[in-house]
Amino acid sequence: MTEQLKQLRDEIDKIDGEILKLVNKRAEYAQQIGIIKKSDTIYRPEREAQILSRVRQDNPGPLEDTRIAQLFTEIMSVCRALEKSMTVAFLGPQGTFSEEAAIKRFGNAITTLPCDSIDAVFRSVESDNAGYGVVPVENSTEGAVGRTLDLLLQTSLTVCGEIQLPVHQSLMASQPDLTKIDKIFSHPQSFAQCHHWLQTNLSGISSTAYINTSSNADAARLAARDEHAAAIASKRAADLYGLAICAENIEDDSKNTTRFLVLGTQEVEPSGKDKTSLVMSAGNYAGAIHKLLTPFSEHNVSMSRLESRPSRTSLWQYVFFVDIEGHQKDKNISRALEELTKKATFLKILGSYPAT
Ligand SMILES: O=C(O)C(=O)C[C@]1(C(=O)O)C=C[C@@H](O)C=C1
């Protein structure tokens, strides 16, 4: 070993000693906070969002901001686990993008509960089998996830967070020779996200050989059992089911992103940069929607999303899912919501939470 290498490693050893002391000191403080909170909610999304925003802002580099956020998410995850263990339900099986989203938000020091449907994720949190649930709500290529919207309308749960996950699809198989492949398994949304790539690069495989599965991870599981099959799924699923990656980043839009919601039972306090989700409906007359939207413009509230969905109560009646910028405790928002209550035939506030 050269003298210079030894010196650098000695420096790293000293720093590791400091980090070790400091993270444990931090964990002790979290433990004390846990005692003060007693039976109160341990997970505080607004506080975690503020910590992540501060460390990103103060980050001198060379580590990238996203790496720093990952590191601090894990530090908070282990501190939180010391206060109380936490179970998070998600759309399974293991290896789905929903699981990735759950770990992106909560870190690895959680118990994960894979569920076989979006309905089951809602049910797990409603019945207290899990403290929180993670469900997909929209994809930048494919649009809204209807089932999630329908269940949000009925549930007693609150939305207490959002997670944006860049979604990169890979083609994988039990052996790397693509000429042997005669069928492809995947979730319908993933087929749609990779439509152009499949037509250009695998034109020999007819779309009748595309087999829909309930999740990407399930597609990987099925492909692992059949040497003539490939799957479109995440790299994580390939690792999990021992598949070889044949092609990476095959999504047609490199910015392909899925937005997930965190479901819980708590009202989240303002973080300083928040979003509020609500669902409303208007009467069936000319100008009804315009009337519903005026309180937002009058109180200077920005709307980041407006999605219509059949109400499922009567024919051609719609509900509108709306995301606005700010927290329901902000003055302009609470005033707009007060007026909206008078104008809407139905209004349900799903929750305010830190915007990402
Ligand atoms: O500040 C708190 O309330 C804590 O419990 C500490 C802590 C943290 O590790 O910083 C952990 C869990 C909460 O979700 C928020 C922050």
Automatic annotation (TrEMBL):
May I ask which residue range the UniProt record assigns to the signal sequence? none
**Domain Chorismate mutase stretches:** 1-87
Q: Which PANTHER family match?
A: PREPHENATE DEHYDRATASE P PROTEIN (PTHR21022), PREPHENATE DEHYDRATASE-RELATED (PTHR21022:SF19)
The residue ranges of the ACT domain are: 277-354
InterPro entries linked to this entry: ACT-like_dom_sf (IPR045865), ACT_dom (IPR002912), Chor_mutase/pphenate_deHydtase (IPR008242), Chorismate_II_sf (IPR036263), CM_dom_sf (IPR036979), CM_II_prokaryot (IPR002701), G/b/e-P-prot_chorismate_mutase (IPR010957), Preph_deHydtase (IPR001086)
Q: What is its EC number?
A: 4.2.1.51, 5.4.99.5
- One of the protein's GO biological processes: L-phenylalanine biosynthetic process
Write the record's keywords in alphabetical order, separated by commas: Amino-acid biosynthesis, Aromatic amino acid biosynthesis, Cytoplasm, Isomerase, Lyase, Multifunctional enzyme, Phenylalanine biosynthesis
Q: Which reaction does it catalyse?
A: prephenate + H(+) = 3-phenylpyruvate + CO2 + H2O; chorismate = prephenate
Q: Which species does the entry assign this protein to?
A: Nitrosomonas aestuarii
Report the protein name in the record. Bifunctional chorismate mutase/prephenate dehydratase
* GO MF terms held by the record: chorismate mutase activity; prephenate dehydratase activity
Q: Which GO terms describe its cellular component?
A: cytoplasm
Query: Which Pfam family, any one of them, does this sequence belong to?
Result: CM_2
Write out the function statement from the record.
Catalyzes the Claisen rearrangement of chorismate to prephenate and the decarboxylation/dehydration of prephenate to phenylpyruvate.
Q: In chain numbering, where does the site feature Essential for prephenate dehydratase activity fall?
A: T258
Q: Where in the cell is it found?
A: Cytoplasm
Which pathway does UniProt place it in? Metabolic intermediate biosynthesis; prephenate biosynthesis; prephenate from chorismate: step 1/1; Amino-acid biosynthesis; L-phenylalanine biosynthesis; phenylpyruvate from prephenate: step 1/1
Prephenate dehydratase domain ranges (all copies) = 87-265
Tell me where on the tree of life, at the top rank, the source sits. Bacteria
